[in-house]
Amino acid sequence: MMALRxxxxxxxxxxxxxxxxxxxxxAQTSLxxxxxxxxxxxxxxxxxxxxxxxxxxxRVERFELRNGDCSGTDCTRDRERVEFIQERGPRNxxxxxxxxxxxxxxxxPDVGPDMNTKIGQFHLPKYRGRGQGPTLLMEVTDDCLVVSxxxxxxxxxxxxxxxxxxxxxCVAPRDQFIGRFNRIMVNAIWSTGADGFxxxxxxxxxxxSYQGQTINVNVAPYFRYGIYRxxxxxxxxxxxxxxxxxxxxxxxxxxxxxx
Length: 259
Hints:
CATH topology: Jelly Rolls
Shape: globular
Distance between the termini: 37 Å
CATH architecture: Sandwich
CATH class: Mainly Beta
Number of helices: 1
Structural class: mainly beta
Strand order of the largest sheet: 1-2-4-5-16-7-12-13-14
Radius of gyration: 17 Å
Number of domains: 1
Largest sheet: 9 strands, antiparallel
Strand content: over 45%
Helix content: under 10%
């Protein structure tokens, strides 16, 4: 295992600097709270996940994704990622709250109109031996933070041919996230029935909501955070280096737990 080293890094345009601890991705564990077991999926490269402490003492996780950073089936499915992944979500039919603060590095590149990057997603696990797709995603385009929701009435078990979107809604300009932390919160009941709902909050204010069926199979979605990009072949010459910072990633039973 590579020995850890320390470097100084500035993590916002206001030049808030912190000591960043760098080592192999394998050595890092998630700082998230309330999710149970969380695993890292990434290429085994030192830059994948690092930690920092801001001037006010806030502990930050720094994710960096470069061209070619893939592992496992991602390498053959046109995908790259560095993500922490919850191994099991809460039981269906119970209300869940998830909150996290995220900032994009000022170096965040434009990738063109055909590529989107996920910076938080709720994903269904396998059901009867078949993989299932995402149900709710926060996606970054060159212009927007998008709330992307798959049609919950359609099976989504082929990652190369994803289910159609039920919603694709811009809720904030992308530039709002460059060099500044914003807090995203999601309140949901995952259900195959009419009692389901999803509400997305940005900096304390509701920006998107839906009432009704939220999942297509009766299994509990789990949460992922970090940087994930798919269909990278749409980026001519690669999608470049993307860096994002997260802190206060929390799952709870009510708003007060995650605010």
